[in-house]
Amino acid sequence: MQLLIETWQLILIILFRGDSLISYVLMFIPFVLFLELPLYLISWLSIFRHIVKETHEAPFIPPHFPKVTCLIICYSEGKAVQNAVISLLEQIYPGHIEIIALVDGVKKNQATHDALKVLVPLFSSHAKRSLIIIPKIQRGGRVSSVNAGLSCASGEIVCAFDGDTSFDNQMVSRASLHFGDANIVAVTGPMRVRNANKSLVTRLQNLEYMLTMQVGKYGLAKFNVINNVPGAFGIFRATFLRKIGGWNTGTAEDLDLTLRIKQYQKRHPELNMDFEPRAVSHTDVPESFVDFFKQRLRWDGDLLYIYANKHSKGLSSPSLLGWKNLVFLLWYGVLFQIVIPFVIVFYMIFMSIISPLIFFLASMSLIYLFYFSLTLIQFVLYLALISDRKWDDLNALLVLPIFPLFQFSVRVWSAVALLNQMFNKGHLDSAMAPWWVLKKGKQ
Predict the structure, then answer these.
(1) Minimal CB count within 10 Å: which of 27, 88, 176, 292?
(2) What digits encode the pLDDT tens for the residues 152-181?
(3) Measured between alpha carbons, how far is 205 from 196 in angstroms, rounded to an integer?
(4) What is the β-pairing status of strands 281-283 and 184-188?
(5) pLDDT by residue (tens digit) across 384-431?
(6) Smallest Cα–Cα separation from 217: which of 338, 39, 34, 411?
(7) Do 160 and 73 meet the contact criterion of CB atoms below 8 Å apart?
(8) What is the b/e burial string over 227-245, where b = at least 16 CB atoms within 10 angstroms of the residue's CB?
(9) Under 8 Å between Cβ of 101 and 134
(10) How far apart are CA 63 and CA 92, in angstroms?
């Protein structure tokens, strides 16, 4: 108790004594202000600009209803795959939607194949909806499936979706409008957490999806530096996708494809990737902390694999990516996703060794208060300006106080995942494809 009182007194001294605050700021602010805050400011300024422009200068967008092919990548979803197919069947889109369900390793995935066949009779009463089921005998992994689907797709727009993802009924109509602009080559939209109320970790991921994946992509797309078109929810112009060779073998195929699009943009700067806030998808996230950290072990390890192996030349050459994309990738991709996790770990160790316990606790408390305030501001802005389900999203307030601690744990775990990739080639231990397929990728 005495330790807590002394820690609180030190916090008050740091905050309200000018000389103490200045000394502390000189240690803490350069890292936060000059590296992290600008990213938030750029994102929100672009969102404000877009909202004002959309409100007062909304351009006329002519109706655009080309044929759309939706590739559903199935592996072990079972009956859950029916949610994805039915949500596409019930789209309000007046054009034709071709659904191609690719069942990877059908002998071991018979339950998913059977669940799809049950849905075939539903399509007889929908003239502009068709379902094609492609059973793949040999499991080849995600990239094998999407490329097989691309070779069969007849739509002008090709969507790549996970088998456990479902959609709002206006998703296709909202996303397809963007392709009326001949320079748009890829679109994505918000991914919402369908099982948000299952556990503490799903609630925390729900808030993470709101503040990082939705807000981040919304803002950065307006600068044409969107960081990634997710593999679970990517929408592309078919001719362009075929021109660049579709998806590439290996893991993290979505980030790989996004970086290849950016390289193509260097030669054709008029091309753009966009974000449609009203094209909403719904997905399930891991429901236990163990499963969550297993997922992030793969995600963060794959990130290093893509940057350090497959696209290492692009990160050192503006002639491949262009200066805008290069600066953003070095700033957001390399600095925040690869360097900062190690900086945080070393900072914690360093502070715990050299600082008296009271000062260490006071410092950690001030850092927590800073990130809690930032999270609160982000959440209020998101709720006021972006959310289309305000009452549902308001439930995230329950986990807002512990969200900074969750973010801290995720960043520390990122360092573990990156080390696992460096020394253990973690990208080869992935459920996305058999090991022998992943070995074909650049090591």
Answers:
(1) 27
(2) 999 999 999 999 899 999 999 999 999 999
(3) 8
(4) unpaired
(5) 888 889 999 999 999 999 999 999 999 999 999 999 888 887 666 656
(6) 39
(7) yes
(8) bbbbbbbbbbbbebbeeee
(9) yes
(10) 14
